Amino acid sequence: MQVSDEGGGIRRSGLPRIFTYLYSTAKNLPDMEGPSEGVTMAGYGFGLPVSRLYARYFGGDLQIISMEGYGTDAYLHLSRLGDSEEPLP
């Protein structure tokens, strides 16, 4: 699965750290003391590390390719085990 955006990309110097907990590329980190504006869970540095952890737990991986000044592509690879179907309630 591929998810893309054209939000300016991630700086090349920041790419090695994107899967590090608490690392964020957000311009304004959240301030719990001040008034709430925008998305309250953005910028904490947990999204990509946790997403990659889940992908690997299920036998896959998460890869990020970014072009600074243009955008970012996220690729989620998951393995399919067997041909059996799982019954749903």
Automatic annotation (TrEMBL):
Its main location: mitochondrion. GO terms for cellular component: mitochondrial matrix. It is found in: Mitochondrion matrix. It is an enzyme of class 2 (transferase). Keywords: ATP-binding, Kinase, Mitochondrion, Nucleotide-binding, Transferase. Its EC number is 2.7.11.-. One of its GO terms (biological process) is regulation of glucose metabolic process. Belongs to the PDK/BCKDK protein kinase family. This is Protein-serine/threonine kinase. It comes from Aegilops tauschii subsp. strangulata.
